[in-house]
User: Fold this.
Amino acid sequence: MGGPTSAQTLCDHLENQLLPRVTPFLDRIHATQRERERDRLLREEQDRAFQDSARRDIERIQGKMEEERREQERQRVVAEEQERQRQREEEKNMKEERRMEWRRWMRRIDAPGGEGPTKGVRIAARLPSDVRVVRTFEGAQTLTALYAFVDAHLVPERYAREEDPVNPPEGVAGDGWEACLEAQIEKEGDGAEWWGFQLALAYPRKEIPWTKGCALSGVESLRGGGQVVVEMKGNGDNGSDDGYHTEESE
Assistant:
């Protein structure tokens, strides 16, 4: 038999006496460690779930805020465009009203119903309504007088002659009504847009565009008089359905 400190004695002591006493303690320690590890993993999983939920909430809130921002931006752009459109319409209406005032003033001072001077350049104009109007102009008069004569016949009939303005809508006609009108057209910036029509010889067709300060005597195709047709701008059939009505068209 071995001594009390022999290897066999020590192994037997460990296996039969010491280990049975410490094993339950070690098992409890291991169980506690496993439980703590489970708790740690559970807390980490819960923390991840909370963080994911918080992240989704933040993303959802940010997404909604971005959507609201885009909607507000869209509404702002729409509102600004509507305001610009309103201003354009208002400016257009004011321009048309101002233009009509000038047309009616020209109708009064140019007396389109009259024959004009007995001597001069006799010109006939065929309106879009197929009505023919004739006027004799002095050679010193300009294309402005001819265009104004035609324009006066295109004033819609709802505007009564007796209510036409006596004075020019803006400024004074100190240098003559033609110069006064030309100054206004120059102020507007576009003669073609101002008149809304152009004149042309019928045959052979030749355009007679309006030119500021151009005397009729200086227009070769009109020196001996003649007949012109009125061609409305932006109308493929030269104004056959241009919305203008005159007393002669009835």
